[in-house]
Amino acid sequence: MNDNRPIIAANWKMYKTPQEGYRFARQLAIKALNLTGVEFILFPSATGLFHIKDALKDTSVGLGGQNIHSAGEGAFTGETSVSMLLACGCRWALIGHSERRHIFHETDADIHAKIPAALDAGLNVILCIGERLEERQAGSTGAVLRQQLQDDLAGMESFPIERLVVAYEPVWAIGTGVVATTEQAGEAHAQVRAILLELFPDLPVEKVRILYGGSVKSANAAQLINTAGIDGFLIGGASLDIDEYEKIAEISQIETKVKL
Ligand code: PGA
User: Fold this and answer.
1) Is there an atom of ligand 1 within 6 Å of 234 CB?
2) What is the value of pTM for the model shown?
3) Is 97 marked active-site?
């Protein structure tokens, strides 16, 4: 994954039926031909994956699951295994999203078990981290990011770190319309990179891409993608609308070219 293109990932959460997702993916497959300067990844709900993989056939648009279970298989009602995702054409797993952490009480220990399960099976991982509002207000953003990275990646001294993407998503910015300022995002991204360098001094940490997520839309995409340390976006609400999603991709492509 030696790729400097910005990742434009869509987290659809619990929106879109398989049919709606398929239609979106068909349209994106056509538009993606002109947007080769970005890397698209779609995270539909599990029910849509099998269908959507056909819509993305012969395209470079990636597909991923919003969640995985760490076990290969078993009596885990309601859960999805890595091999099920692979059979649906997935190359990616979203792990540790704040809604999984805070609504479904997923712990860092749970997340820690999922990451090697995904990587060992050949899936790339987007690991989501981020502080809550009260943590930012208390000045502990850096400490929260450190604790999450330390616990989620504990004991993983040697692993294919280039297949790990980190999404910095301040919880207070997710779905709220309140976006982090470029200063806040830039500072957090620099902290994430520095923590990774400290945790994995012998690994090629420069290959880890760090995405920003939290109320990204076309109106703020240019300033965010121009912020040092932001390698792409994980987009929730704004990714549900194909025009808005493509607009964000287009802006990211243009701005990244300007940067080079
Ligand atoms: P949002 O969600 O873009 O709607 O804020 C981001 C996310 O949950 O990944």
Assistant:
1) yes
2) 0.97
3) yes
